[in-house]
Amino acid sequence: MIKPGLKIGIALSIILILPSLFFTAYEIGNLNQNEAVIDSIYSSQLESVLFSINQYSDDVLSGWANQMDKGRYGLDKEIELLETKNYSIDAFFLINADRYQLFPKEKIPEDSINSLSKMLEEIYLVNESKIAALQRYIKSGYQKIGVLKANMDGKSLFAFARNQDSLSVETVLLLVDTEKFIQENLGPKIQGIAQDQYYISVIDRELNTELYSNVVFDAEGKNIQQKKEIWLFPNYDLGIQMKGNTIEDLVRKRTKTNVILLVVMNVILLLGAWFVYKSIQQQIRLTQLKSDFISNVSHEIRTPLALINMYSETLEMGRISNEEKKHEYYKVINTEANRLSRMVNNILNFNKIESGRREYHFKETDLNQEVEIILQNYGQHLDSKGFEISFAACEDLPKLLIDQEAVSEAIINLIDNAVKYSNETKKIKLQCEKNADYAILNVIDHGIGIATKDQSLIFDKFFRVSSGDLAYKAKGSGIGLSIVKHIMDAHGGKINVKSEPGEGSVFSLWFKLNK
Ligand code: ADP
Fold first, then answer.
1. 49 close to ligand 1 (CB < 6 Angstrom)
2. Which helix (H) or strand (E) holds 445?
3. Beta strand residue intervals within 214-365, DSSP E
């Protein structure tokens, strides 16, 4: 059969601990999932920011192409306007069936013009297929800007096609100073988009250097979270980073807090469950002890009652004529009645202690004298049981402030136990000693002794040592020592025990000396 304590433990784990552990596991799983979702939302957000910057650079160049087509002042003038307004444009190069014509930004020396024209013409020829595609686009009404490979430091070369007239199409090559374009055209856009939320920078991929950034590099350090190639400037990347706490940081921080909270909650729950389990176990133990107590007490009361009954009946019937015998019978009745009364008193006092109604009346008392009185009263009873009892009094013992009745009760309880738990060696010694602070009364027996593991438990109410023949057979209720302990506590003193199984025990009552 499963023990009730174990049953409660299992029930508690099922009711309290298991659901919370499941919940914790579920929450941790959820947190990871949430983190992944937030992470992907965050990535797409960064990506769309970069996309819009990319789109913008495309729009700028398309805008220029458009202006050349649809401007109000004619091609040459529009080119001139574009070049004066846009710091980054170095030159336009117009190619159609009739001419190759360079529109450089500033007046540059004739030979440079020639060499540049030559170079652009060559690039044009090399990229013929790409340019043919751009021309096809324009014929179907769609203008597209293409990037051409140009071996020129810091410059980018673009191509687009335009309708020369309703019949023919011409090509425009556009030479742009990359750094100036990024500073002049992308810069303001990046500032506008980034505001206080992001760090955005343009990075030269080959040199791995930053060409532009919306903030001056500072100690916070840059940890670029996403990079994208700029469509029209393939050698450059756009990099982006969230300012301050990134969402990742926030999610990580939140996850950490949640996990800590869950762990704390579980620990509290476990402690709570453990506490409930322990107190229920204690309660069960107490109930068991109480039921033992009732059966022990009933058993203990029955014996003296039966004896009193038997002897008094015999006397009543007048069958005993021998005076000596009669006297012996009266003595038995008297002894048993005393035993009963001590037992009942013990139970009543215990009840008073339990309900907090026990009162003490302290009076200056001579402890030596008190012990002598007890021995006078009980000497005969002990003699009759074959016990030899001695007392070594304290010398120069000042009077102690004690409750005489309660202290007698404590000493009698200890003597009773010494008698109950002695075997063949029926010797009990009471011994008083004194140190600077305490008067100590030792009750020494040579009985069965107490195992070390039980020594701390014997002062608990209802506790009885259950192992060993004599301990098992001796009658008792398990409340005697708990009453003694209570009495000593009320006196500001204490009780302790030194004992060796098979050798005997020394119970010591410590009384504080009056200063
Ligand atoms: P009980 O009515 O059982 O004697 P007590 O509270 O007086 O109850 O003692 C508790 C237990 O301590 C006893 O059951 C016994 O096992 C043990 N005990 C007490 N006094 C002695 C002693 N002098 N020698 C050995 N065991 C003792």
1. no
2. strand 438-445
3. 226-230, 233-242, 363-365
State how far the Cα of 448 lies from the Cα of 432, in Å rounded to an integer: 23
Domain segments of the chain: what residues?
Answer: 32-244, 359-512
The amino acid that residue 347 corresponds to is I
Residue 230 Cβ < 6 Å to ligand 1 = no
Tens digit of each residue's pLDDT (9 = 90 or more) over 158-185 = 999 988 887 888 999 999 999 999 999 9
Per-residue pLDDT reduced to its tens digit, 6-53: 777 788 778 877 887 888 788 778 877 877 888 788 889 889 999 999
Rounded to the nearest whole angstrom, what is the distance from the C-alpha of residue 440 to the centroid of ligand 1? 20
Q: Is the CB of 481 under 6 A from ligand 1?
A: yes
- The answer to whether the Cα torsion of 339, 340, 341, 345 is positive or negative is positive
- Strand 233-242 and strand 226-230: the pairing is antiparallel
Is this model's pTM higher than 0.85 or not?
no
Give the C-alpha separation, 199 to 307, whole Å. 102
Residue 206 pLDDT class (50, 70, 90 cuts): confident
Nearest to 436 by CA among 503, 514, 357: 514
- 486 within ligand 1 shell (Cβ under 6 A): no
Of 488 and 108, the structure prediction assigns the larger pLDDT to 488
Residue in 300, 455, 464 to alter for ligand 1 test, most ligand atoms within 8 A of Cβ: 464
Q: Give, in words, the CATH class of 359-512.
A: alpha beta
Query: Which protein residue's CA is at the shortest distance from atom 4 of ligand 1?
Result: 476
Is 378 close to ligand 1, i.e. is its CB under 6 Å away? no
